[in-house]
Design goal:
Blueprint lengths: L3 H27 L2 E9 L2 E9 L5 E4 L5 H6 L1 H23 L2 H23 L5 H57 L1
Helix pairs in contact: 4-5
Length: 184
């Protein structure tokens, strides 16, 4: 019997997975997750920015603040930078919470493909072959988590690199069209 607290925890976990999936999808569209923390010093706008790319690159942009403003507003800068790093840590938390979503998707793919293989390859006349095909999905389910830890980050990095490669090719084609239009 499931308690209301367990149901609430599962619901929160699913919400976090949905947010993480949306975050990852937006990351593919935009090239990464950008955390932007704007602030003003002496009437001038500034911002701390961090770009987290799915291939594990983290790029930080720090505002160019004069020494005088830095010394005068060091306490405010400290508070703003703490808030910014909190937001960066929260983005990493949301990306990390997608682990449950990846496990669910991999479970569906794993068990679905194994079920199809079992149904199409079972030979009920030969019991040893049947036992072998029944043992295979059980073994793959047992080692799934270990495989996911190794393979999932590499697949994600590979997909992101393919996206970058395709973008470069499309940009080259676009530049060639522009050059052709200029010279014609």
């Amino acid at each position: 019997m499931i308690t209301s607290q367990q149901a609430e925890e599962k619901l929160q976990s699913l919400k976090a997975s949905k947010e993480a999936a949306q975050l990852i999808w937006n990351s593919f569209e935009e090239g990464g997750v950008t955390i932007h923390t704007p602030f003003t010093l002496n009437g001038k706008p500034y911002a701390f920015s961090t770009l987290i790319q799915l291939d594990a690159d983290v790029i930080n942009y720090f505002p160019n603040i004069s020494d005088a403003d830095f010394n005068l507003y060091s306490r405010k800068l400290e508070n703003v930078s703490k808030r910014h790093w909190y937001e960066v840590e929260f983005a990493f938390y949301k990306l990390g919470s997608s682990r449950q979503l990846w496990y669910l998707l991999s479970d569906i793919i794993l068990w679905g493909s194994n079920a199809i293989a079992l149904l199409s390859l079972m030979d009920f006349e030969n019991i040893l072959t049947t036992l072998y095909w029944l043992l295979l999905p059980v073994l793959s389910g047992v080692v799934r988590k270990k495989v996911l830890k190794v393979v999932a980050p590499k697949l994600l990095r590979f997909a992101f690199n393919i996206k970058k490669f395709v973008e470069r090719i499309l940009k080259k084609k676009e530049n060639k069209k522009k050059e052709k239009a200029i010279y014609s």
